[in-house]
Every structure is written in C-alpha cells, then in structure tokens.
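name: query_chain
kind: protein
chains: 1
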Amino acid sequence: MALGKYSRVDGRKSSSSYCSTVTVVVFVALCLVGVWMMTSSSVVPVQNSDVSMENKNEVKTPVIESNAENNNDARIDESSKPAVEDNGPRDEGQQKQFEDSQGDLPEDATKVDNNASTNQVEKNDKPEGQKTTMRISSKNKVDGEPQVENKESESGETKANNSDDKEKKSEENSVKTDGEKGEAQVVEKEENKKDEKTDQGPIEKKDNPPEVFPSGAQSELLNESTVQNGSFSTQATESKNAKDVQGASQPQNQNTYSWKLCNTTAGPDYIPCLDNLEAIMKLRTTKHYEHRERHCPDNPPTCLVPLPEGYRRSIEWPTSREKIWYRNVPHSKLAEVKGHQNWVKVSGDYLTFPGGGTQFKHGALHYIDFIQQSVPEVAWGKRSRVVLDVGCGVASFGGFLFDRDVLTMSLAPKDEHEAQVQFALERGIPAISAVMGTKRLPYPGRVFDVVHCARCRVPWHIEGGKLLLELNRLLRPGGFFVWSATPIYQKLPEDVEIWEAMKKLTQAMCWEVISITKDRVNGVGIAVYRKTTSNECYEQRSTNDPPLCKDSDDPNAAWNVPLQSCMHKVPAASERGSQWPEQWPARVGKPPYWLTNSEVGVYGKPAPEDVVADYEHWKRVVSNSYLNGLGINWSTVRNVMDMRAVYGGLAAALRELNVWVMNIVSIDAPDTLPIIYERGLFGIYHDWCESFSTYPRSYDLLHADHLFSKIKKKCNFMALVAEVDRILRPEGKIIVRDKVEIISELRRIFQIHAVGSPHDLL
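structure:
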C-alpha cells in the first residue's frame, strides 16, 4: 500500500513534468515547422507548375508554349483574358464557348485534338515553313481594353487521322487586336471613335471555307525550308551574325516593353535616315546634295512618331487626288511659292491640288496627252507602263497617269520644297524621298519604260553627264527620256549654254532625238529622246566619251553604290533588256522572256514555272482570304507595301483593285526586282535593318511575309516594329505571315503598346 501511495504521488509529479516537457517540445516543433514553411515557400510555384503541365490549355514551359498557341488561339475570345483551365473532359456545349466565330477558317482548324497533351512536344517541333498570318488592328485608345481575335487555319494540305498516310496541314493564325497605334497583327488605326468590344460567338463550320493558303503542291511555295536564291544573285551578301543583335532574344515578360515618343526637330514628319542631323553636320561637303542622301543612325530608333495636331482619317481615293486635310500635312509654304502654278492651294480645312505643275499649269492630263501626240510610240498604258518621274513636286504627273493605266515612281528630295513627297503620298500617289546625288538610285538597271523630268532642277550636263548617265542605267534600251525645261524653248544665255551641252552629251550617249515640240497651251517646250537598242553606235563613236563601263560593273548593283560616269553595253540577244516587254496588261501574267528553264527559281522550280506558280498562289490567297476573310474594307485602302516581295505576285493579284503596291526586295534576298518591273509593276531595294525613305503615316496596308523572323536573326527586331508603326497610317493594317512564335511575340509587343502608351497615337 505504501508503495502504491508513493507511487501515486510520484506519478502526479511525473505527469506534471511530462506535460511541461510536451508543451515545450510542441512549441519548438511548431516554430521549426513555421521556419521550414517560410524557407521552403519558393518551392510552391514549382509544384504548381508541375501540376499545370498536365493541363493542355495552361502551360508554363517554353517548349510547350508555342503549342498552346497552336491548340488554343482559335478558341480564345479575348487575348486580355487568362487561359481557360481544362481540368477534365468538356462536353460539346462547353467546348463551343471558346471557339471562333465562322470566318475564313477551314473546317479542320476548329477541331479539338484529343491527344494535345501527349503530342505537345511533337507539335512544337514544326517544319520551318509553317505559316501564321497575323492581322493587327490598331485604334486610338479612348476607353476599353484591347481585343484579339485569334484564328487558326490550315495550309490547304489534307489533314488525316492516320499520320502515317497523310501530312498535317500548316497552320495560319489570323490575329486582330484593337488598341493604339503600332499593334501588329493587321494594324488598324481608327480615329475619333471608341473601341467597341466584339461579342464573339461559337464557330459554325462551313463546307467550303475560304483558304488562306493554297492546297497541294502550291503550298510548297510558302515552305521556307525550300526557299533558296536559285539562279538569282542577291543585292548584298547575307548579313553576318557578328552584329550585336538588339532584338535577338526579347524578354518574354510583356511588362518589359515600353514606348516613348520620338523627340526630334522633325516632329511628326520624322524620317530617321533623312533627318539624322548629327551625321549631316559631319559632312565635309554638300556640293552633290550629300545632305539630302540617306544617313541612317547607328542605332535605329525604337520610339513612336506622334501625330500632327488635329489629324483626321485620310480622304479616300480618287477624291484625295484633288484634296487632302490640311491638318494631316500642315505645311503651307509650297502653296505660297507654287500656288500660281497650280501645284497646291490652301482652301479652308483642305489643301487642294488643281493638277498643275511648273510645266503644266493648265493641267497634267493635257500635258500627258500632248506628249503622246508628239510621240505616238509612247503609247501610255500599253507600251509604256512603268515611269520614273524625277523631281516630281507634288506628283500630279504620276497621279493623272493612273488615268492612262500607267504606274509612276515619283521621286523628290526632302528639301526646301516643303513636304512635296508627303503631299503625294497623302493624295494616294506613289512617291519616295530620294535625291540624285553621289549614289545610284535603289533600282535595278534597264527597268523603266519612260523617265520624265519637268523642270526637275537636276544639272544633267555637268561633270561629264554623271547624273544623266544614271538615267541611262535605269532606262530600258528603246525607252524614252521626256525632258521639259527652259533650255528647250528659251533663249537666255544660260539656257542656250545648257541646251548646247545637252545636245553634245546626248549625241555622245547615242540617244536619238525623237521630238522637240512646243505646248502652246502651257507655253513650254518638250524634248523626247530614245535610248539606243544596240551597241553599234557605241562602237562607231570617234571618242570613247562617255566611256563604256567595265564588264565587271553590274548595272543592277544599286545599294549604296557610287555613281559612275560610264555607260553599260546594250545586252546581247535573249538577255534581259534585249527585247521590249509585252504590252500591258499581258506582261503581268507571263514569265519574262529572258528566264530559262535551266535557271532555278526562288522556290526550287524552273524559273518560269516558279513565277507562274507564285502568281497563281497569290491570286488564290487574295481571292479566298484577303478580300473577304480578314475584315479589310478595301475601299479605304490605297497605298500598299509588300515588305518582302519575291516576284510581285501579291501586287499582280491586287491589280484589279484601286490600289498600288510598293514591292520591296531586301538587299540580302534573291534579286528578283527586275522580274517585278518586267511584269509592269514596280518596287525598290531596301534593308529593313534601316528605316525606309518615306514620311510617317504613308501606307494604308503593309504585308510582311516571313520578314520579322528573318530580321530577328539579323538586327534590331524592335526597331522594325517601331518602323512599321511609323509608316503605317492611322486606321491602317499590317498582315503578318510568319512562324507561330513570332506571331505570339508580336502580339505581346503590340498589346503592351496598346495599353501601355500614355498617348493617343492613332
């Protein structure tokens, strides 16, 4: 009993001590757990990421991200919303909620791949040629959030359930974003109206949906893996990757993108390569108009050019040929200086263009018809289709040549004739800012049917005729030089001196005088010369002056090539330039006579077949998709640029519309620009690592076919984005066809531009 008693007392003491010990241990354990939880919190996102990888609609890893775009873009209603989680099977009704409304999507593009989870990595490893079209719509931001329509479509090849028997289609995403200036999917800049959100319904599948890409063998035209130089040389060698690529690896976090307004003395008229005052101030001389030539900054600008105050949506063609909004190009100096010659006048809120010029005060059409009456062989719109107008003024000559089915490349410097090229572009007339100075113009040799100069203020006769010899390079054998200037009809000492010098020079160049007439309505004289079609005259000259160029001097080399005081020989039979092209419009649809089956085209076919296949492809794309499938109101489109043209197929396919297309052939691409001219179209060489020689707000529609992916490997990606924003008009659009990852990145960039910019830029 005693033992029991003492045992009980000891038990109480032991129990109390035990409780205290347990309490301390529990407290310490809780502290340790708390510390462990705090120090291990960084592991949680990894755990969540692992879980989310099982979700095919919400992915975190970069490898699968592009597949998320492939599988889900066609089902996203608004890009600003997060991805919809898919934690289990969905019934048909739930699935339709995230499908696109019917449009230009093929039937298969709306199908859900039940094996998306297991095939994500496989799908991400796509062939290089897979295409995506980005349609960007850009507006002045008033209120509301940007919206994106993502549409997937297939390339036209049959998609089979059995992958062993048939190949998968290439995919095409058509993305439309509403926001501020600079969005890049088809960029649509809208003025003076609020963003309206689109209520997008479920997809209704069509039996015969429009196709963005051709089916069958034609789809290989767009397979970038098959593109090659073929038998064509390049305007410049491929860029070496030694350049420090500023945009090669843009951060994925869209919050890192920021946009600022350009702070320059040129303000809303900023042309980076022509307004580089730092470079211009360092020039040793400006005797040969060096200060009017291109001087691009070492680091291309990534800022945004502001709108002029009071900017309004451009007036549509053809009304724009006669009048434009004054506030869009608020410059009145030219009206004060040239108003009496009917160049341009200020009339209330408008700038009006009576259609006159220094040499045709009573209208361009009379002047144009008078030239043909003097020289019937000119045959506007038939034999003569592509014209170069040097010193174009406000480009009324080229503007009214449209009435004669003639395409005119109007050219003038950015000089004291304030905004003359800007007036032309705002009117809907093709023009570029350039000068005949120390370098060749950026066109291939022997491509223009007619070259025109009406008091263009170019001293053709000086320094051995170096500038006139540049026209000789550009003019086709048998082509005409139309010169209207005071030395032809005035007898002042200076005029007589110039006329005598021109007579001597043109004879030495073997140019034949076809006509010297006086237009009594305008009171001016016009001289028309024709370039020789054979080398016989050159060989019979008593002196080799001007000299013939060396055989090694390529007449097509034109990018930053110094002018040469020499003449190239007329090509031998069967070579380009030895024959006149077929009359317009027959020439647009046929391969040039000088292409042979032994030459390999850009897409790997024999060159003549390559040109035809490219034309058929773009006719199909334009007809089945661009005209109806992208929501473009073509009545508002006038100025178009194909930023990466090959054979000019897009321009040829659009020729029935009331538009003109500036075809750009990159200097490191196959030199196909001569083919474009031979077809009765026109274009220019350019390097998209630099800014284009045009004013801001010049184009209604830009077309970029695999341009961004190439620039990303070569130079500053973001500078090209800013350049697109600069040259695109408010309410304008850009169609981007490229790889899915490029489309995704551009969408992120333009979304941030839309919601992040503090200014109403569009």
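note: The longest strand covers residues 475-484.
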